[in-house]
């Protein structure tokens, strides 16, 4: 079935085409996860050199293959394409003994297992952590759930639901409006980041001791941690926050303001920045006004301050104010659309969109796939982009060709 030395059969590895070694070269991940949190975590690790083998249900595969529009020119879901590059796909029927035998063979050759089935599913399949740890003491076993494996095991783990019951929606939206979710599945993304961090910590422990362990991450736990200052305000001071629109509960001015053309975001974090803001707006006396002299003063008189600033900012456009304020060190910028955001990153020299070679037999026949760049820059072992997201079951025969299970394989 290939080896764990970074050169599995038929696979060049993340460093193969780009030259050099990925930071995680030689690490194999058996990825039983679907949708977003797990696939995002494993894609980040694949970009850094891990050999990720994605286990999918025959016929349908990962649910996000069907989540469209939008789709690329070949009709492939851009949702799926966004979190599954640099992986190999195998189609296994885990309801059959043959499929479970193939899964066990894959796990035996893997360093990490990632799964986000409803708690108890892997155990019913005989693939739970307790089923595997004795025979695979090196294995790092990462379970991602919505609400944990105990009292919340029966609650489906959907991002919208977690944003609602986890408190995020209660602080998102206008004060006089209804609670609003974030514009992306933010909790899934944060959980994926926590999962990848937990995996790397467990691998570091294994380096030191030779022993794997179980890593458990939940959407709810991840959200409560990610609520940071809001959660700390409750935990320490018993404050239950509400919705403030785009304003901040502890800083002012720290919100969006209308201008002559489009909204402008101001993020004034200290008194010096506020003095510079007042000078640029042509009203330096604001910085000496007792209502606005310090940040606590400005928070206490937020509405009065907002009225004064909005009147001045309405005299010119967002780009004008952004340039003038950034020139004196005041954090400010227009509210961009997504295309404008990518263009902005490009102007700053930050990676935005990259092209990835499309593997033969993948979901798209194009020679390259446009992908969003990996966000972490490593000077010695940077992220590599060696293959576009795979077709369903594209690598099943390749992965299992050197195992007894290959004789029972009947096609992709």
TrEMBL record:
The keyword Metal-binding does not apply. GO terms for molecular function: CoA-transferase activity. Keywords: Transferase. SUPFAM superfamilies: CoA-transferase family III (CaiB/BaiF). InterPro entries: CoA-transferase_III_domain, CoA-Trfase_fam_III, CoA-Trfase_III_dom3_sf, CoA-Trfase_III_dom_1_sf. Residues 395-412 have a biased composition (Basic and acidic residues). Residues 7-20 have a biased composition (Gly residues). Residues 1-20, 389-412 are annotated as: Disordered. This is CoA transferase. It comes from Streptomyces montanus. The lineage of its organism: Bacteria, Bacillati, Actinomycetota, Actinomycetes, Kitasatosporales.
